[in-house]
């Protein structure tokens, strides 16, 4: 069954109260939203009242109910997906990018549109994705391959419309049956033929919703140790019943710092708390990383410019003084100094030898339906530059492409011509992935020096964006 606009939204104006019905082709029941409440109606109940309702619109799916406190009243809007484009198919699921949404005021007040316009802009930005399967059980995009097989419990860090599910949950509605789950970030999927078999090559970046916002507005950490622009990026290959996955993470330096100012280029880095006041959040950040991802090594790409150097030194001092000092290694690599003109030779000759043993020990995730879990990734590299954008993209792409031949060998895809084809495809996907992550945090793709395998891009560097949380 092909994916289509399988939801119909109806409303009833008279007699009061205003009421909205939601029906879907896949279920006999329907949802009724009325007077701030939600109820699931049986097929018989639906048929008894449906002729008093008129159709408003068709939708691909429902994201939930947006609730805004207006002081003396509560605004409720039903959020529906009215436009989406397919990114590709993986296993039994198809992944879609949201391109258009509609907001149905549950009090039938046209003025509500002004209040939700910012949220609409964010949801229509092209940064949100959902998965759909005709079987009714869709891939959970919040989970990397290892977690999906190991526990299959949604990772709330990457479940962006979680708050939109709460209103229906409050009334006992099974949200898995009625609502979509959104992930924010980037998803690239390509099909590569290996003889008569089809392999799916994917790069998936999941942006955390825990400290979301654009650069210059949101930097560093919060008191819980959650950092700005935290992204889990997964390089994953699906082949028949096999899957191979390699994960890297990025995130702002876990200290309280900011860059006040209006004009790009005039922002000076400023630590907003003293050493002792930074320590608890720093400890929480690395405790959480080690619990979630295992062993950690930091690749710090900050340079010798005044603000960057000060921030880099503070990062090193906090690690040295922390309870994680013995377990977490930091590698300082002045990217701008070492990788001049976008050439990657120093990544290979200087940086790679420092990480080789760690990557060999931590490995990657490998699974087959027949043998189960064959390898597990037991640690990640945490990469940062100032914004965790262009320099970070370059280094993560480099190490992912270094790991790729090992993943392919594990899948039995080790013929030189096939490896070369995969490398070409993944280079392209990593470049697009870098642009996707940059646009969300900075408003544009990175435009400073890129490694030679990335295509150039121009664009404005300033942008404002709010996020759904």
UniProtKB/TrEMBL annotation:
Gene Ontology cellular-component annotations: endoplasmic reticulum
Catalytic activity field: a 1,2-diacyl-sn-glycero-3-phospho-(1D-myo-inositol-3-phosphate) + H2O = a 1,2-diacyl-sn-glycero-3-phospho-(1D-myo-inositol) + phosphate; a 1,2-diacyl-sn-glycero-3-phospho-(1D-myo-inositol 4-phosphate) + H2O = a 1,2-diacyl-sn-glycero-3-phospho-(1D-myo-inositol) + phosphate
Swiss-Prot/TrEMBL GO biological process terms: phosphatidylinositol dephosphorylation
PROSITE patterns for the chain: SAC
Pfam families (UniProt xref): Syja_N
GO molecular function, one term: phosphatidylinositol-3-phosphate phosphatase activity
Cross-referenced PANTHER family: PHOSPHATIDYLINOSITIDE PHOSPHATASE SAC1 (PTHR45662), PHOSPHATIDYLINOSITOL-3-PHOSPHATASE SAC1 (PTHR45662:SF2)
Protein name: Phosphatidylinositol-3-phosphatase SAC1
Organism: Anguilla anguilla (European freshwater eel)
């Amino acid at each position: 069954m092909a994916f289509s606009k399988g939801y119909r939204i109806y409303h009833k104006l008279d007699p009061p109260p205003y009421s909205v019905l939601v029906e879907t082709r896949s279920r006999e029941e329907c949802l009724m939203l009325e007077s701030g409440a939600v109820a699931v109606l049986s097929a018989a109940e639906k048929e008894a009242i449906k002729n008093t309702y008129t159709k408003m619109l068709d939708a691909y799916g429902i994201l939930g109910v947006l609730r805004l406190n207006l002081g003396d009243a509560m605004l409720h809007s039903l959020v529906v997906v009215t436009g989406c484009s397919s990114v590709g198919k993986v296993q039994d699921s198809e992944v879609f990018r949201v391109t258009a949404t509609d907001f149905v005021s549950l009090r039938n007040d046209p003025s509500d549109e002004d209040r939700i316009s910012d949220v609409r802009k964010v949801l229509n930005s092209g940064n949100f994705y959902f998965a759909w399967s005709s079987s009714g059980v869709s891939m959970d995009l919040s989970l990397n391959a290892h977690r999906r097989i190991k526990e299959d419990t949604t990772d709330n860090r990457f479940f962006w419309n979680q708050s939109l599910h709460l209103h229906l949950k409050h009334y006992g509605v099974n949200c898995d049956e009625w609502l979509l789950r959104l992930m924010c970030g980037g998803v690239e999927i390509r099909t590569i033929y290996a003889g008569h078999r089809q392999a799916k090559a994917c790069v998936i970046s999941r942006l955390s919703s825990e400290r979301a916002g654009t650069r210059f507005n949101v930097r560093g950490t919060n008191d819980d140790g959650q950092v700005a622009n935290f992204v889990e990026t997964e390089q994953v290959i699906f082949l028949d019943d096999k899957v191979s996955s390699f994960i890297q993470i990025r995130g702002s330096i876990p200290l309280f710092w900011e860059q006040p100012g209006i004009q790009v280029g005039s922002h000076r880095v400023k630590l907003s708390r003293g050493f002792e006041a930074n320590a608890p959040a720093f400890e929480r950040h690395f405790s959480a990383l080690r619990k979630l991802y295992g062993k950690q090594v930091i690749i710090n790409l900050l340079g010798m410019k005044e603000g960057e150097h000060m921030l880099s030194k503070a990062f090193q001092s906090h690690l040295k003084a922390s309870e994680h000092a013995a377990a977490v290694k930091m590698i300082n690599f002045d990217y701008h100094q070492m990788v001049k003109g976008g050439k990657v030779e120093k990544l290979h000759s200087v940086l790679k030898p420092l990480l080789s043993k760690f990557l060999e020990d931590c490995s990657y995730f490998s699974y087959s339906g027949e043998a189960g879990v064959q390898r597990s990734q037991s640690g990640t590299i945490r990469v940062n530059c100032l914004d965790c954008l262009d320099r970070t993209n370059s280094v993560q792409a480099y190490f992912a492409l270094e790991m790729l031949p090992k993943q392919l060998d594990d899948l039995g895809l080790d013929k030189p011509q096939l490896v070369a084809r995969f490398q070409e495809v993944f280079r392209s996907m990593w470049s697009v992935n870098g642009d996707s992550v940059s646009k969300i945090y900075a408003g544009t793709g990175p435009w400073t020096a890129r490694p030679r395998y990335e295509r150039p891009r121009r664009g404005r560097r300033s942008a404002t964006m709010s996020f759904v949380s």
